[in-house]
Amino acid sequence: MKVLIPLPDVDFDTTEVAVPWRLLTEAGHDVVFATEHGGSAPRCDQRLLDGVVFGKLGARPEPIAWYREMQQTDAFTDPLPWGDLDVAAYDGLLLAGGHAPGMRQYLGSAELQSFIARFWATGKPVGAICHGVLVLARSKGANGVSVLADRRTTCLPKYMERSGYLVSFWKLGRYYRTYPEYVEDEVVSQLTNPDQFERGPRETQRRGTRTDHRHAFVVEDGNYVSARWPGDAYLFAERFIARLG
């Protein structure tokens, strides 16, 4: 099956893209990338490769290695433009996150939100992780209401976003605060009932792995799978793949 992963030109989260890409391709699915204008390879948040503060808080070695492999693929080096995307051409849509400033190109795109809403209306599998849930929440159906209005979901919890900001603001300013409003607050504001939001167990350091999902958390609601942060990426990808069939 063919899965679309739209991305900004820069600053997406290394793990939230590389882990699903690797697991999807291993499962025999084709992954197609798209950027606003297409034609040139996007780049992840460099700080996640180097380490955010004192070499820490970055991506783990396995996702970084997979990102390097992904960079060598034709699909990644020659992404499609958002304006050429055809809903009928894809069997699944995966929305990754990231918090650095370059993500605003992707999170705030009316063109991309329109495509996402049309894809959502097909009922095909959709997965969103971290800030990826935000672009989904901003996508409005024909009724002018968020496509997530009646769904259960998670996203980057407020305590995680705040924690990242507090440990790094002395060096990086608002690097961890993509927008003045917390991701969780904006997502919840688009839900019919705040109780539809599931924060999950409190976690800031331990991450799920390919073989150990004890510290990972996802929310599943019909064709939709959501997750909180890079620490959920392996379980998130696994559950999304299960929906592709």
Shape: globular
Kindly state the percentage of residues in helix: 25-40%
What is the level-2 CATH architecture name? 3-Layer(aba) Sandwich
Mean of all residue-level pLDDT scores: 96
Q: Secondary-structure map with pairings?
A:
Layout: E1 2-6, E2 10-12, H1 14-26, E3 30-35, E4 43-44, H2 46-50, H3 61-70, H4 74-77, E5 80-81, E6 92-95, H5 104-107, H6 110-120, E7 126-129, H7 132-137, H8 158-172, H9 183-189, E8 218-221, E9 224-227, H10 233-244
Parallel strand pairs: 1-3, 1-6, 2-4, 3-5, 6-7, 7-9
Antiparallel strand pairs: 8-9
Helix pairs in contact: 1-3, 1-10
Brief write-up:
The chain is of the alpha/beta class and 245 residues long.
Structural write-up:
The chain is an alpha/beta fold and 245 residues long. The protein has a single domain, classed as Class I glutamine amidotransferase (GATase) domain (Rossmann fold, 3-Layer(aba) Sandwich). The chain has ten helices and nine strands. A seven-stranded mixed β-sheet has the order 5-3-1-6-7-9-8, sandwiched between helices. A two-stranded parallel sheet has the order 2-4. Strand 8 and strand 9 form a beta hairpin. Helix 1 packs parallel to helix 10. It starts with a strand and ends with a helix.
